[in-house]
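yo

u said u wanted the structure for the complex thing, so here. seqs first:
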Amino acid sequence: MNTTRAAGMPGLDEPSAGLAGHGAENAPLLSIESVGKRFGAVEVLRDISLAVAPGEIFALLGPSGCGKSTLLRTIAGFETPSTGRIVLDGEDVTRRPPNKRPVNMVFQSYAVFPHMTVAENVAYGLVVERVPKEKIETRVVAALEQVRLADFATRRPEQLSGGQRQRVALARALIKRPRLLLLDEPLSALDAKLRDAMRLELVKLQDTVGITFVIVTHDQSEALAMADRVAVLEGGRLRQVATPPELYRRPADAFVADFIGSVHAFDVRRIERDGTGLLLDVDRLGQLALPGELPAGVASGEQGTDGAVLVVRPEHIAVTDGSLPASDVHVSGRLGDIAFQGDHSIVEIALGDGSSLGAVVDEGTGDALQRIGVDAPVTAHWSIGDMRLLPRDATHDDLRS
Amino acid sequence: MSRGDPKGPFDYSRKWSLRIVFLIGAVFLYVPILVLIAFSFNDSRRGGNVIWKGFTTKYYAKAFGNEELMLAFGNSITIAVLSTVASVVLGTLAAVFLWRFRFPFRSAVEGLVTLPIVIPEICMGVALAMFFSRFGWSGVGDAPWPLNLSNIVIAHITFSFPFAAMVIRTRLASFNAETAEAARDLGASEWRAFRDVLVPHLRPGLVAAALLSFTLSLDDFVVTFFTSGPGTVTFPVKIYSMVRFSVTPEINAASTVLILMTLVLTFLALRYQRIAS
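structre next:
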């Protein structure tokens, strides 16, 4: 379905694609409509459009500086977009201050008020709202129970661990019963063990409260594991919006492919249509016949420096020093480091010109390669079906026009 | 701590040279004050008299009975309170403004705010005296209280406000701006977030700034001397004029009361800060 998408506008029509039960058929809870943001001469967000369906966990994923935090702060109301609109529940909230939006946020530093007790922190949003005292008390007790902090009500923030502080921040936001909960890098400040536990806990919590979550993260495994749908941002532009399996299997361009997992990319020199398929001239691999249509954002003919690439994932690459299936694509090189990872090993194959290829192999192959020894000539091979022809940057076309 | 122990590299308290330096420092700092306090109880007609003539509290009674001295004392307290309130409010505004916003020439503005700290006080005094007389403000001594002190209050604000701004600015540096945003996010207006989150964080800085402004104002002589008129004498100026005739134990007694007051104030402020945190 990616191949039929309009070039240059990844993500816009994506909610309808591969989304069971979410998105297009329901009215979106949040729509971001061609939002742009500049800070002086710096363009932090460029023409971002996406829709978040009610009840889903939506992740904004990208490397640091990609604009994902700015986008989140724009949704919360801390930044006003330079162009475009933000529509929440059918209402334009673009210029509404943060205290007037039915949206709450869990900050990266948790931002727990240090001079208040846990209970006072959690109650704050209701006190400001002038909710009657008795009601506040019962709701605070319920909120603290929900995040398993019932015994900590009278503690001060400095007496809590990082994980507990985060749960205070969560309870403080959830007690407001927001339409949308924003989480800024919710797991980044926790240690690895706690991170895994909290990840599960967040998903479970979202399930019980039924509030839509928008999560900002730079960690692709976090986004893939938690989110129903993921928006990949880079350089202030939206690269792709899709479900985690789709992002992995059908990335819109080389950046997404490499950011979600990793890929080895071969430069494509020339593409020609050949009956039902394509005939490619690929750097290092030579002439290849690839079945299927031209993907979005890729034109046939001579490819420039910003043209198409042919990618393969390390987990699809096999390594041998003997014979290989005749139909497989292959490159030869010398065996480099073998990194033992338990149930699998990551094998490096030096390709001679300083570049190298990584392959994920199973335990047995890893042991066998270990015996051959470093620097032995080997061949990396994979099926042509595991390769994908992708534009380097799917957002490139509309920028040039 | 037997004498046989070898000295550690950071065992400064056991070095004789350092002990002597410390002793000399303490002597010069506190002995004059202790002598001043002790001789306020001396039953002698002259305060400069270093011969102990017996214990008496009559000079305290005399000091409290001295109407001019009491008036000066009242003026000093009034001026200190008013200029402290104004300095802390202005200092907070300036500090938050400089911290919160980016604008052209920000560092220049910051320098301008703190400049009065380094300007010699005598210059400030002369400049303010000329300024007030140019605008006919020096003749306000006959105006009803506390307007008669207005020019001195303004003068005191000009030199104590930069200190307040600096102290509060320092405290602001440790503020997590996300907590103010969190308050906004939870429904607080800009003002409510300021009151509920920023002010509690600033509190120790505000107390320190207030204490500093208060003591700066209370014991200021130079600027006050240039801006006070015959009807608006402050405590330090009054003491100075009394000393010019003769040093009596009455002055010792008045000074002792002043020292006691500042000590109590500082103690209360520190205690309050400990409770608040």
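Chain A has three domains: 2-102+178-254, 264-308+392-400, 314-385. Confidence is low (pLDDT under 50) at residues 1-24, 397-401 of chain A.
cya
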